[in-house]
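Section: Multi-chain targets

For targets with more than one molecule, the full set of components is provided together so that the structure can be written out for the assembly as a whole rather than chain by chain. Components appear in the order listed by the source. The example entry contains two components.
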Amino acid sequence: MSHANPHLIDVYLAECRDLTLAELRRVVETHAGHTGALHELVLDYPLRDAKALRPALCIASCRALGGPLEGVLPSAAILELYHNAFLLHDDVEDDSENRRGREALHREYGAPIAINVGDAMLALALEPLLENMRLVGLGKAIRILQVVARMARESTEGQALELDWIRHGRWDLRASDYVRMVYKKTSWYTFVAPVLIGGIVAGATARQLVALRKFAALLGIAFQIQDDVLNLTGEGDRYGKEIAGDLWEGKRTLILLHAMHGASPAEQERARAILAKPRPRSHDGATSPSLRARLAERLETLTDAGEISAHARGELAHLLATDAPEEKTTGDIAWLRALVERSGANEYARGVARDYAFKAERAFGEVDGLLPSSHRDFLTGLVRFVTMRDR
Amino acid sequence: MSHANPHLIDVYLAECRDLTLAELRRVVETHAGHTGALHELVLDYPLRDAKALRPALCIASCRALGGPLEGVLPSAAILELYHNAFLLHDDVEDDSENRRGREALHREYGAPIAINVGDAMLALALEPLLENMRLVGLGKAIRILQVVARMARESTEGQALELDWIRHGRWDLRASDYVRMVYKKTSWYTFVAPVLIGGIVAGATARQLVALRKFAALLGIAFQIQDDVLNLTGEGDRYGKEIAGDLWEGKRTLILLHAMHGASPAEQERARAILAKPRPRSHDGATSPSLRARLAERLETLTDAGEISAHARGELAHLLATDAPEEKTTGDIAWLRALVERSGANEYARGVARDYAFKAERAFGEVDGLLPSSHRDFLTGLVRFVTMRDR
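Its structure, encoded as tokens over all components, is:
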């Protein structure tokens, strides 16, 4: 494994993030300058504390191959914009509570505004990519557009696979199904597209692009597995997302698949029953568990006090129970986490992530013509960073 | 006004729709062929019964200027794909019940899948627009991409304006605010982009494009005002959408703005109070009585039957009332519809729509070089169709 100083990774990320955000502000001010409220909301997620990994990967790949910063910066900023648009829609889809240590946008502004802000970010990405023609020339600009088009398609296909498995209660899944889903959902837009675009701007050869792409695809899978581990084991504040959100959402992670395979039939049955239940919805006064719980409790008390007949209590309790789909509880999630813990699935997943990172490192060695530089060091160091990170 | 036979409009629309859907199937099969479930969902809304107005406008503009059908068809299909992606996201945002006479997609599959299918449709639009380079040449393909980029941005900005007004309870709006919002939200993607793209493929002059654009912008405003009227007065089955959905959603239509201006202070206050309330959420059973309503009803019955004491009834009713945000009721909406009826706002709006259609007709007369053809007749006849339509 690499011997790069982890601190250098953070410094490189921070530098690229500053450059990217300045560029992103410029893009938004140029193209969305006339709609004040939307303008601010489009920048909300990007300006929150984040690593800005995708633009850094794009910039490093370009510069390690001798390409210019100015040529790659607009594309790097657009990758960050796409990423944040996906995060916004993901948060609505998952009804996540937090993002980057703050309340998810739809919880403050409502799902309608959050969905539209995401669409606006996707729309805003197109004009700068067309302006790229003046900056990097027609041929490269078109190839970058082709990568972005493929990236957008792969991401939604990966997301569709995951949502489809949840909807149909699918558990007949192998590790290879998970890897295919993650390749589409995560690798493509987090690693493959950034390095390809960086390479294209730098004028990389077909051979260099193939090697970069292999490196990125493998590292993306390692990254997502590690992300799944952090989701289950991380500290909320540091990780910036909801702990065990994947379990609340019933996601088919490698960890959960492994834990299910190793569980007893009775445990499997209980786990499936829990995971099939919806999570409590945030915006729903009428069916929120708190109202239900409070009503049920009050029914008991008033019946005990002789204020309600046993018959009336039965009727009302029935109405409460039949209306609502039973929802996941914190007890359910604690039980699932204990099951995962016992199964050793986190350690297993960490090991698989390390294997993918190792393969990525070997693939990186096949990228010829990289110039010795802080950019190359960043890419090398990233392999270790991905599997050692805690956020 | 035009003397075109309304029947000819329907025939032209139907022919273009068949061509568009065949092309759309080809696009989806080529680019989304590997993800079965997603593939079907992407075609769900487009295959429902609809006019397919946008592709027809695009095809007619191209052919009326002597352009080829083959050159314009992929772009026309992509416009239909964009439109349906927006509809999908709109339906989630508004929590609409129906779309084109059937259940809205998110009501069957849930909001997460519906949001992602919309994103997938937006993603799928890009690759065919890049392939356009081979079909219509580089220059035209890039100009079409620029129009689509602007279109996507204008649409989300218009949507943002509307959602922002609702969120902030804004009523200090003039007709000109409404027109600006509608120009962005509706005119751009329903009329301006289709005719510009048709013109570009046909090799239209700058002068022709300016005139076409003016025609389209004006006709788009007429179209949206008429759409608002139909939303309030149409027959559900024929219109294919939820009747008075705009009132449930609190949209600032020209009709509602006019009715508010003409109302007494007390009526204004009541209308604002109603419109500020959220609509009942679908998973709460928006069409069937909500859990809260059923519990309240049962409480009454059981109290009357002596099964519950007055004290217990009071406590439980209080608990039900305090937990929930008060929601719009069917009675509220009926009151608003009566207010609108009394104010004559529907007739007023119909008149404004006719004025815009008349201006559009004049603008159309300024488009020089149109060849006498069924395509030109369609565009002429459309002016009357837009303000006379009942669906």
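Residues 6-239+357-388 of chain B form a domain with the Farnesyl Diphosphate Synthase fold (CATH 1.10.600.10).
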